[in-house]
Write the structure tokens for this entry.
Amino acid sequence: AQSVTQLDSQVPVFEEAPVELRCNYSSSVSVYLFWYVQYPNQGLQLLLKYLSGSTLVESINGFEAEFNKSQTSFHLRKPSVHISDTAEYFCAVTARLSGSARQLTFGSGTQLTVLP
Amino acid sequence: DTGVSQDPRHKITKRGQNVTFRCDPISEHNRLYWYRQTLGQGPEFLTYFQNEAQLEKSRLLSDRFSAERPKGSFSTLEIQRTEQGDSAMYLCASSRSGTWNTGELFFGEGSRLTVL
């Protein structure tokens, strides 16, 4: 079984400042890692994912996350946030299984609030 | 719109009543998932289908919960004799299966249940 810990439930940050949302996972097998974002009154949307290869992955809106196997972490970063980044961010993990993967295990979420 | 759709978006019911939620997945996706999300928590897995077969159920899914996916298309989640603790957002997601499935899920906007 897998588990995900998001250490910060709320992160307030001023516009144009950098931000890091922390995510640690636990698993006895190799995993795929994801960050999902949930904007107010909207469904969860995939932000970025780590499957294999380069440990640094990027989204189209400037977020990046780095897979660190030794620290079992997948922290999300953005060098300069915008008001529109205000949302709840969920880290998620699924086991790499022979064939295809199945359910995702989510962390409890981090509410990012960008202040003007 | 070719995304995952859920109906109703909001349901208020009295304790003891039965409720049913419907999910229409993305048409070419043969996997369908139900998750539950309570306030301040990440989504928790309930059950999933591959085509019409229900392949896995969480221990969170008590005997009062039943899910179906007739003909492998839309799915319904029924809760019988609702309790106040059932109040939550019920999320549906879909994905493809196959060796190239990476566990990425596409979520609907959810059905919010309030039990009075």
User: Anything to note?
Assistant: Chain A has a mean pLDDT of 91. Chain A touches chain B through 28 residues (CB under 8 Å). The longest strand of chain A covers residues 87-95. The two ends of chain A are 41 Å apart (CA to CA).
